[in-house]
Amino acid sequence: MRRRAELILRFTRAERWVHRTTAALTGVCLATAACLYLAPLAELVGNRPLVVTVHVWCGLALPVPLLLGLASRAVRADVTRLSRFTPADWQWLRAVRARAAHRPAGKFNAGQKLYAQWTLGSMLVIVGTGLLMWLTHLAPPSWRTGATFVHDWLAAAIAVVVAGHIRMAWRDREARLGMRTGLVERHWAEREHPQWQATDAEREHPHWQTTDAER
């Protein structure tokens, strides 16, 4: 049982909504892609036109949660953090390589920043190539062939990276609770994200409140 006095706010509702909605859309896109690409799944599910429609529209919607989330100051602050590498991030990467216990990190560590940057970049490419495949009049056949090649292999890479992301999250219960409830234990923040805990957490959210349902 986590004590309220020992909890600090890590993610606001807007930040959690962006993460959950993007994750849901990504999951649907990967599931429908598997149904379109793998014959056994295609036969099991059937109704290929419906699967294509769901895949296309969920793919087009992928950037929407982030774009809407930018209305939140907390989300904008996260985007700024995730897009900047600091000396501490390079130290974190060297510490991981050396398997050192002390790994300096702000609100997000270097691994999380790399994952976020990969996610945004791959999202833009996957949506762009998907549009070329869907709207056949936009480009000549050779372009569509190239787009199909990139789209298929990038989708496979995304599936692998997402699986790795889920695996890492599964190994850290407090990180999962932070994304689910928005709250993390103070000692976890001090251990995993010492620079964020020391400089940002309470200053940004000095008057957070929670309910029993959020614990």
TrEMBL record:
- GO MF entries: electron transfer activity; formate dehydrogenase (quinone) activity
What keywords are assigned to this protein?
Cell membrane, Membrane, Transmembrane, Transmembrane helix
Cellular localization per UniProt:
Cell membrane
Task: List, alphabetically, the InterPro entries matched.
Answer: Cyt_b561_bac/Ni-Hgenase (IPR011577), Di-haem_cyt_TM (IPR016174), FDH_cytochrome_b556_subunit (IPR051817)
Sorted alphabetically, the Gene Ontology cellular component annotations on this record are: formate dehydrogenase complex; plasma membrane
Q: Where do transmembrane segments lie in this chain?
A: 21-42, 54-75, 114-133, 153-170
Q: Domain of life of the organism in this record?
A: Bacteria
Gene3D superfamilies annotated for this entry? Transmembrane di-heme cytochromes, Chain C
Q: Which region ranges are annotated with the description Disordered? A: 194-215
Give the main location: membrane
State the annotated membrane topology for this chain: Multi-pass membrane protein
According to its UniProt entry, the protein's GO biological process terms are:
anaerobic respiration; formate oxidation; respiratory electron transport chain
Write down a Pfam family by its short name: Ni_hydr_CYTB
Q: Which residues form the Cytochrome b561 bacterial/Ni-hydrogenase domain?
A: 10-171
Instruction: Write down what this protein is called.
Output: Formate dehydrogenase
Kindly list the organism's lineage.
Bacteria, Bacillati, Actinomycetota, Actinomycetes, Kitasatosporales
Gene of origin? fdoI
